[in-house]
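Hi U.,

Before I forget, here's the chain from the pilot set. I'm dumping it here mostly so it's searchable later in email.
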Amino acid sequence: MNRTLRAALLAPALASALSGCGPGEMAYRPAAQILPAHIKKISVALVKNTTQQFGIEDKLTRAVIDEFLKNGNYSVVPEEQADGSVQFTVTRYILTPVQYDNVLTPTAYKLLLLGDLTFVDRATNTLLWTEPNMTGALLFSASTRPGGVTEEQARELIYAQLAKDAVKRVIDGFGAVTGVSQRAISDVKPPNEGPPPTPKPVNPNPY
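Structure:
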């Protein structure tokens, strides 16, 4: 093998060695910061509730805090000590019967909770981002049916869903979770449109 050919064969290996990577390896590139680097500690504000359903605020707030503590990426501290603040507003609470027995008593329901998640940089007092219409949804049998649950138990399950999505959105950034269009929710009135038609009960055994 002549010197020219040998040099041509050794050049890629030499370049790889000088760059600190072996053949076939990728160069190390640190992961991009999802939140600004100065945010090390976060607070979770008490959930705001704009619906007529009471009792959501404390339990959903606790679920979000617990999920952040389990994740461990950021310290969860009181607001006055935090670099950033997670804020959640519940905007819709929709409980819809989806199944009836032969005397038109509901035997199954669909529960939807919608809310807007925001993150505030407390160092600069600016809103970093907002994720609108985050949704928790559950189909469940009435508590009078075998394996059924109460409405309160269904809410607890949805709190866990929303808490996981909230943490994922903060940790993993844009696109990690997405909300729904208002048009996808049957009894939500889209902008500039009239109220939805009132559904009529359907007798499953008309004869």
